[in-house]
Structures are given as C-alpha cells and as structure tokens.
Design a protein that fits this description.
- The chain has 134 residues and is mostly beta strands.
- Helix content is 3%, strand content 38%.
- It has 1 helix and 9 strands, in the order E-E-H-E-E-E-E-E-E-E.
- A hairpin with a 4-residue loop joins strand 1 (6-9) and strand 2 (14-21).
- The chain is globular.
C-alpha cells in the first residue's frame, strides 16, 4: 500500500485536496494531514485524516453536511480507493483520541474542529472501504 496523496469528497465539493504526512500546524497549512502511524489507503485499519474548517482553505468546513452513503475518495500515485460514509457525522470532545485508534476494517476517519469559528469540539466522519462488505 502507498500513502495517500489527494482526497476528494464530491458531496461537499472537495476536489483533489493535497494530503501531507503529519497533522501539526505546519502540515495543516499545506492541506489535509495524515496522522503519522495511521494506515495507508486500502489497508485493513484506520486512515486518520484531519484538516482545518476555518483557515488554510477551510478544506473540512462542510464535514457536518456529509451523510451515510456519501463517498470519500483517496488517491495514491497508483490507485483511487473509494470509501463510503457509514454513519452521520458525530461531535466529540477534543480529547476523544479513540477515534484515531487502529481498526479491524479498512476505514478512513475524517476529523476537524467544530463548530465553525468556535472550534471547542471535534467533528468526526467515518467511511468504510467500498467492496469490503462488513
């Protein structure tokens, strides 16, 4: 498996946003950050991606508009992996690190601050790799 290079979320108009390794302040200025140590696209575990909702392109501003069945497409240099949102977005405390834990299924977890311009919570969207059937 190769690392993700771009993300597309058609339902919210996000097109080919760059994915960078790491989720610190400097990385998130450049695009969507992949949590170091999380899975690569297509692997049976959790690809953890985060981005800002109100600065640096507001890439994840509309995560709250996603719904079950929407698509999240991750691109590597060789292949596109399509994930399907499996539950409506949920709001959690910033300390809810369990959402970044490895999983048995091939999933992607999208994380951003919430609500817009307040940012005292986190919004989480989880999608499962299409065709895995679980």
């Amino acid at each position: 498996p190769q690392q993700a290079l771009h993300i597309e979320i058609p339902a919210i108009g996000l097109k080919m946003a760059p994915i960078v390794q790491g989720d610190g302040e400097e990385q998130l200025k450049k695009g969507v950050g992949q949590y170091i140590g999380s899975a690569n696209p297509g692997e049976d575990s959790n690809v953890v991606l985060s981005a800002h909702n109100d600065v640096y392109g507001e890439l994840f501003r509309d995560l709250d508009k996603l719904k079950k069945g929407d698509l999240v497409i991750l691109y590597t240099s060789q292949k596109a992996y399509t994930y399907v949102v499996i539950e409506n977005p949920k709001v959690v405390e910033p300390t809810a690190a369990e959402v970044m834990a490895p999983t048995e299924d091939a999933v992607v977890t999208l994380i951003s601050c919430y609500p817009y311009l307040v940012d005292n919570k986190r919004i989480i969207v989880r999608a499962r790799l299409q065709g895995t059937g679980r």
